[in-house]
Fold this protein.
Amino acid sequence: MNIIGKRAWEMPEHLATPEHLFFNRRQVLAGLGLAGGMAGGLMPLPLRAEEDPSAGLYPVPRNSSYVLDRELTSEELVSSYNNFYEFGSHKRISAAAQKLPIRPWVLKIDGLCDNPQEIGIDDLLKKMPLEERLYRHRCVEAWSMAVPWSGFALAELVKLASPKAGAKYVRMETFQNPDVATGQKQTWYPWPYVEGMTLAEATNELAFMATGVYGKPLPKQSGAPLRLALPWKYGFKSIKSVVRISFTETRPVSFWEEIAASEYGFWANVNPDVPHPRWSQASEELLGTGERRPTLLFNGYGEQVAGLYAGLENEPLYM
């Protein structure tokens, strides 16, 4: 007899609520007049742009080179349906995330670069050419959304750092503050959250550092004040609330890769032909619609990124 024990870090199935059921529950609670008092984190919070010193920078000009094959997901859904394990292993973290202090916020740039530095987020924003891009976002959990991110090309930040010849990878790290992010008190997770990519991926035209969304500064639950957006990769690669960027010669081991390398690896490219060990990736549910669509290779961005992976055919691209 095989006895299968559940690993401490695994999300219970009852917490992985399908998106359409999650929002149906909210609608029922609202109809009963209970949403405000009993739903807790279920109800979306305002983005509170007036509390962010960078609010006057938005909205920023839209880059018309980036277009979508679907309608934008509503701001309400994007601001209330969030993965952010620092604040809990479920989607209802928006209320808890408001505890995150986002000023002062200092980004450390170090490693194999000629211009290491520590720079405050507002000084960084003054240096960067801000724009809005419409991107598809595909979660490894098989749901997707379409988002108007504001921010700047990651290549601009790489240029600011000026990597040395030996730099091959970019390692990113999020904040660590268990006093406000109670999920970081869970010792079975390898905090802080770490992600990585090749330098070629980081300088690809699509790689984007998001500082705003829907014409406003990022809300805390979405990764304020600085998050990564890699639209051709599964969403767990798009690290939130970044405090450190390091240039390295060795490939970083990311947060989910360290936890379960057989399920979540370094590459994490969207690939409908490579299933997750526990579910198919052949289709996805569009957040807020209940509609399922076939998953696109590289999330539909193959023209821009397929060349990055020539010669890597023997590696599972989703890993």
